[in-house]
Amino acid sequence: MVRLVYYSALLTGLATSMAAGIPSRRSMVVLESRELPVHFANAGAPNPDTTLNLKVALTATDRDSLEQTLFDVSTPGNALYGQHLSFEEAKALAGPSPATVQAVTSWLNENGITDITTTGAFDDWLAFSVPVSTANSLFEADYQLFTEIGGETQLTRTLAYSIPADLQPHINLLHPSTDFVRISRGPKFHVPVPSSTSLSNNTASRALTAPTACNSVVTPTCLQDLYGIPTTKATQKSNTLGVSGFIDQWPQTADLELFLENLAPNVAPTTTFTLQTLDGGSDPQNAGDAGVEANLDVQYTVGVANGVPVVFISVGESNSDGLDGFLDIMNNINRQTSPPHVLTTSYGFDEPDITSTQANQLCDAYMTAGTRGVSILFASGDGGVSGSQSQSCTTFIPTFPSGCPFLTSVGATQGIKETSASFSSGGFSNIFARPSYQTTVVANYLTALGSTNRGHFSTAGRGFPDVAAQGVSVEIANGGGAELVDGTSCASPIFASVIALINDRLVAAGKSPLGFLNPFLYAHPTALFDITTGDNPGCGTNGFPAKAGWDPVTGLGTPNFASLLAAAGA
């Protein structure tokens, strides 16, 4: 953090204002407002003297150029393809201008706020602490206490707030304010494997088809057979694969060794991962610390992307970004000189829980990472068309961040004659418009869909998922035993491993990693196995049917390693 320095003349002026007890006022405009989410209830007003730790997000110097750069460096055939930005180049576009910093800090100074620090990847947040009463006055807000219905979460939030009209070009959002997020809790389903079949080594080797045993238990060997994933070891140590960890989910080195010994015969059982931590994250290795999600994600990156360095990024509970650490981890990655080439995340939210302003703030962080050459992959969710987890609904619930157009959303399939997994979340964002790379494929799907589900979703929204991979009866080692897990949280690390292995070949040939994947993937749809059967029920409907071409259940399809490698020019 960098402490800002202020001039005595400003302090003299604000002292007069404070003495009068009246902060400077300007013409105000509402920046965000929302209805109270159905899963929270008002618990009354907080003590007005309670301290709130607030942060203001500052606008980027040139966001439009940043987005254009993303597509320039990510679109095959573009003269700038593969020319990813350095940290300094990204900061010049994504960071705030000096004029923006000055305008917002001056306003805060005028209102008696001088203890201000800068945070964020590019010093693009201003942080300060004030009593609730001051926050209500300064932002024309009404901070209240809210409790989660049926849960333990208690938040101090407001359903609306305002900023000076002349500062609209400089401020993106205030946090905490209108955010009520709830993170998804990991795989949809997991059960112990009977001891008679636990961790049995599958040695089938027929290319691009898997033995029938893979219909009931999926292992790395099954994936190698099904998708043509090579067993040879990667060679490029600079080509790292990041795995996000949240909500006290920790991978166990003993479980990883057990997994590799029994289910990944081409990987040395001593192979492990490195650890990064933020927000008080950790990775304890005590008995009982095994986390199903964390073990799954690490085992199917280390065990499938043979030889690719895997880093587990443990995000602790001491986060204050309003997104359970989702923005903090991206700030951490975007400020790195050499960020990982791939990042897979198997958690998410329901889009209605996120305000559009907050969603855009995080989505732009993924956009920035893409300009740096990072491929961002997310599990699409496990509630079919009803959101990140199955729930009652009358209209379809998109998931987030899958609706962000600057990342790759991964749905799930099942069986060796692949069909969509019924829980595979997919649909259309109500916040983000359809990106250009989806124009044709989504239009084709909507035409084929006809009037089915009309009125349940936005026909103009960004469609997701983009791709898919196996997500049913995937075997892991957990707590010293074997379990089968279901979920798109299986599919994301599997697809991420395929991309990491392709990047290994590219880097070895002196080329750039793939970076933001979607322009490449949508330009080469035949490089994936098209999934044309199944659907994703929810909200009292059968959801969306899988069809030829892209669909909002399995996207463009599942990976064909050889075809993707050829399309990448490796």
From TrEMBL:
Keywords of the record: Calcium, Hydrolase, Metal-binding, Protease, Serine protease, Signal, Zymogen
Pfam families with a match to the protein in the record: Peptidase_S8 (PF00082), Pro-kuma_activ (PF09286)
UniProt subcellular location: Secreted, Extracellular space
Signal peptide as annotated in the record: 1-19
Residues reported in the UniProt entry to bind Ca(2+): D530, I531, G549, D551
Annotated InterPro entries: Peptidase_S8/S53_dom (IPR000209), Peptidase_S8/S53_dom_sf (IPR036852), S53_propep (IPR015366), Sedolisin_dom (IPR030400), Tripeptidyl-peptidase_I (IPR050819)
Residues at the catalytic site: E293, D297, S489
Name the record gives this protein: tripeptidyl-peptidase II
Native organism taxonomy: Eukaryota, Fungi, Dikarya, Basidiomycota, Agaricomycotina
